[in-house]
Specification:
Domain SIS: 40-179, 212-354
Distance between the termini: 31 Å
Bound molecules: 5-amino-5-deoxy-1-O-phosphono-D-mannitol
Number of strands: 12
Strand order of the largest sheet: 4-3-5-6-7
Keywords: Aminotransferase, Cytoplasm, Glutamine amidotransferase, Repeat, Transferase
Order of helices and strands: HHEEEHEHEHEHEHHHHEHEEHEHEH
Shape: globular
Radius of gyration: 20 Å
Subcellular location: Cytoplasm
Oligomer: single chain
Protein name: Glutamine--fructose-6-phosphate aminotransferase [isomerizing]
GO molecular function: carbohydrate derivative binding; glutamine-fructose-6-phosphate transaminase (isomerizing) activity
Helix content: 40-55%
Length: 364
């Protein structure tokens, strides 16, 4: 049941902290605080390349996984949505890693992409929530997410669980490839293990998120922005808003604004930005100042450190706990999903069963 929540989506949003913790518990040895993956039928030290594919939210999790595999493990990565990947027929060196991500394990396009990769002799690693599924049966290795059943058509907790697995995979690969030292591994693992309690604190921001929702609910179009690993968070936010509130939303890499979308900006098109403190913060900030100068209403998700710089620039600032840059996208996803839920409530849509959508897409 819904445990007293109004919708499964609300219940599942509140499960983020637990689900992240349970997923990490499967992959991190509490004694050594090192990542321990199941046995792989190939060596992460010598894998030439990873090809990531998935659909929808799982694809956005994969985009964050790409940032981590590239920056932490120094593995070359290609990524595409499964509906494109299955027909692209990219040249693949045998022995590469095909990385599939799916909550249900039944998505038709993801399964077809898997079979294509298998035909090109890739090792198939799947990040799945339903471990008794078709994709599971056709994979060499399944890395399970411990999200539990996800009923809401709009995916929420499965996403942060997928990120938890992908982060561990990147750390393990980095260690194996000699680019993550034992000290670095300890620091990265510590930042992951800190996530469940930090995630719990995100819900303290519910009132500020509702204020944002009131602005969004009156809009016809919304622009989501982010840079680096916050760009997929923006994509996830825009998808979730479209799904449950039926408001048109688009996500852009913040640096792409001046290449076109900035022409959309006026007071009627609110801008939702994800801008945690860190390497790219100042860059995003200057993009936001450009948008404001053109009359844009800025609603910004940041952390307590970034908030100081944003007050005075943004109309509404939601500051969640400051965490390591590595884990920031995991935490920043939660308020962005909460926002979509709050807007759906204001719009009175069928939150758990949005029109035209199915929980698992088993046809092409
Ligand atoms: O079961 P899967 O993870 O393979 O599903 C992929 C997408 O269909 C799914 O993430 C979809 O985009 C959700 N409705 C997003 O909220």
């Amino acid at each position: 049941g819904k445990d007293g929540y109004r919708h499964y989506m609300e219940k599942e949003l509140h499960e983020h902290p637990v689900v992240i913790g349970q997923t990490l518990q499967r992959l991190i040895d509490p004694a050594t605080r090192r990542v321990v993956l199941p046995d792989l039928p190939f060596d992460l030290a010598s894998v030439p390349r990873a090809v990531i594919t998935a659909c929808g939210s799982a694809f956005y999790a994969g985009m964050i996984g790409r940032y981590w595999l590239e920056s932490v493990a120094r593995i070359p990565v290609d990524i595409d949505v499964a509906s494109e990947m299955r027909y692209r027929d990219p040249p693949l060196t045998p022995g590469g890693m095909g990385l599939l991500i799916s909550q249900s394990g039944e998505t038709a396009d993801t399964l077809a992409a898997l079979r294509g990769m298998r035909a090109h002799r890739q090792h198939i690693v799947s990040v799945l929530n339903v471990e008794q599924s078709t994709i599971a049966r056709e994979s060499d290795v399944v890395l399970g997410t411990a999200a539990g059943p996800e009923i809401s058509v709009a995916s929420t907790k499965a996403f942060t669980a997928q990120l938890s697995v992908l982060a561990c995979l990147a750390i393990a690969a980095g260690r194996r490839r000699g680019v993550v030292s034992p000290d670095q591994e300890q620091a990265l693992v510590a930042s992951l293990l800190d996530l469940p309690s930090r995630a719990g604190e995100v819900f303290d921001q519910a009132d500020a998120i509702r204020r944002m929702a009131a602005v969004i609910a009156g809009a016809r179009d919304v622009l989501y922005l982010g840079r680096g690993s916050s760009f997929p968070v923006a994509l996830e936010g825009a998808l979730k808003l479209k799904e449950v509130s039926y408001i048109h939303a688009e996500a852009y890499a913040a640096g792409e604004m001046k290449h076109g979308p900035i022409s959309l900006i006026d007071q009627t098109v609110p801008i939702v930005a994800t801008a945690p403190s860190g390497r790219l913060f100042e860059k995003t900030l200057s993009n936001l100042q450009e948008a404001r100068a053109r009359g844009g209403r800025l609603l910004v998700f940041t952390d307590t450190q970034g908030a100081e710089r944003l007050r005075g620039i943004a109309e509404i600032v939601v500051a969640i706990p400051t965490v390591d840059e590595f884990t920031a996208p995991v935490l920043q996803t939660i308020p962005v999903q909460m926002l979509a839920y709050e807007v759906a409530l204001l719009k009175g849509t069928d939150v758990d069963q949005p029109r035209n959508l199915a929980k698992s897409v088993t046809v092409e």
